User: What shape does this take?
Amino acid sequence: MGLFEAGSRGVFSVLLAGAASLCTASCAQEYVYIQTGNFPRPMVFEDALTWTREASSTVNTMHDFEAAKEAAYGGMGMLEGLHLLVPDDEDGLILLLKAWSGIAFAFMDDEREEALDHKDEAMAAYHEARARAGFKRARFYGEELFSHRAKGYKAATRNADTLRAWLKGNFTDKEDAEPLMWFAFSIVGRVAFDLDNPETVAELWIGVEVLEHVVKLDPEIENGTAYTMLGATHAGLQQYDQAKTDFDNAIRIGGGKLVTAQLTMAERYYCPKRDKKGYFAALNAVLAAGDMPEQRLSVVLAKRRARRYLDNKYWQQDCAFEG
Assistant: This one.
């Protein structure tokens, strides 16, 4: 399994953003053409990205995993195309940052796990490489976004003190928490699929520092998702006391709405701690979660993985449970 599992409605709110905006962009384009006889101005594409971002949260109400996956993959080309037309548009950069991270986590990693379920290591390695590349591309867009908002990112990553100072000096509003969180996710997410690469692993601290800044700006962002990411990362570093505090914060903030906190805690905390009771209780709590219309897709994915981890002993072999 990877370094961690983490997500919430925020992960899935952008997965289908490209598909949702396809009609928006083409219809706006056609409307201007019909009315004026001229090719649409760049402003039309910027508007399409703005509308897409504003409407993206609605897609998480979908209940069908396969339909969501097909739509998400199908929409990426359109988002990339709009970015090419308006490369400096921040809405487009944020959508691409979130969408590539979300697809890598929600679908590419799921396909990796399915391959392992069928003992197909070659296909598992293929999907692992895809997920790694997806997170890498997400990070590229995140760095591009921050180059518009603040200068000196590369220099700031010299050490933890310089990065903290850079974050504190340039990102002070609650609204900054969203892009920062997904940028951090692109870093720690890639590490999960590149553990054999010392260069990648050596940058994990950057993701942790950014997440620490996120929870200062908005500790309740996405029902406690930032704390879930921190808990998973600290657990991966075997800092279990801190991880438990992070997970407890996520569950408290989520108030039962962040089922992926339980899923992640089972895999990254209870499993390495060999806590069989806690492991099964957390996964069964995910399966027992009721319908949440505003984040139905995230619940579907969490339950899909919880069933997998419960039904196939392969996912429990690293836990070394006794009895």
Summary: The chain has a mean pLDDT of 85. The first helix runs from residue 9 to 13. The chain has one domain: 9-316. Residues 9-316 form a domain with the Serine Threonine Protein Phosphatase 5, Tetratricopeptide repeat fold (CATH 1.25.40.920).
